[in-house]
């Protein structure tokens, strides 16, 4: 079964900073939403037992998110071979996308404020078909720049629309 997910080239994992960034987001959102909802219900309705349940659910979500972020980060990766770029993702449902260099129309590198703070970016490959387009989150900024330049160059040599 693992042969399906083996492109014949070495996998490059995404940065562990993606895991850290997602953990911070999950913890902050769990705390803000859980505390806000618990306090509001407690003050407005006086149902402190429900507030306690909301806090417990929120804490449970944060713990689940902590482990999910690590597992999800390890699931992402990409591999380059002579003709294709492979992108893998998914924990329970694994997915691998092979993007032929000749099909790449353009390469997009994005980084929001939080991603920039962590020094990572998302590399997006766009093709004529949405099924073969791919995104790679959590790529270190210098690697994202290198990957963008390499994919652009390979697209030109393989006759793509870049």
From TrEMBL:
It holds the Pfam family bPH_2. The keyword Aminoacyl-tRNA synthetase does not apply. The chain crosses the membrane at residues 24-41, 47-69. Keywords: Membrane, Transmembrane, Transmembrane helix. This is YdbS-like PH domain-containing protein. PANTHER family: TRANSMEMBRANE PROTEIN-RELATED, UPF0699 TRANSMEMBRANE PROTEIN YDBS. The keyword Cell membrane does not apply. Residues 74-151 form the YdbS-like PH domain.
């Amino acid at each position: 079964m693992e042969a399906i997910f083996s492109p014949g080239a070495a996998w490059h994992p995404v940065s562990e900073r993606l895991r850290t960034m997602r953990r911070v987001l999950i913890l902050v959102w769990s705390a803000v939403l859980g505390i806000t909802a618990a306090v509001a219900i407690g003050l407005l309705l006086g149902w402190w037992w429900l507030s306690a349940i909301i806090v417990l659910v929120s804490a449970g979500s944060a713990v689940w998110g902590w482990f999910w972020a690590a597992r999800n980060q390890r699931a992402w990766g990409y591999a380059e071979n002579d003709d294709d770029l492979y992108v893998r993702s998914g924990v329970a449902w694994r997915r691998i996308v092979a993007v032929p260099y000749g099909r790449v129309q353009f390469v997009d590198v994005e980084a929001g404020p939080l991603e920039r703070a962590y020094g990572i970016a998302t590399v997006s490959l766009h093709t004529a078909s949405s099924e073969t387009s791919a995104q790679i989150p959590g790529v270190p900024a210098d690697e994202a720049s290198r990957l963008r330049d390499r994919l652009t160059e390979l697209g030109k040599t393989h006759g793509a629309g870049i």
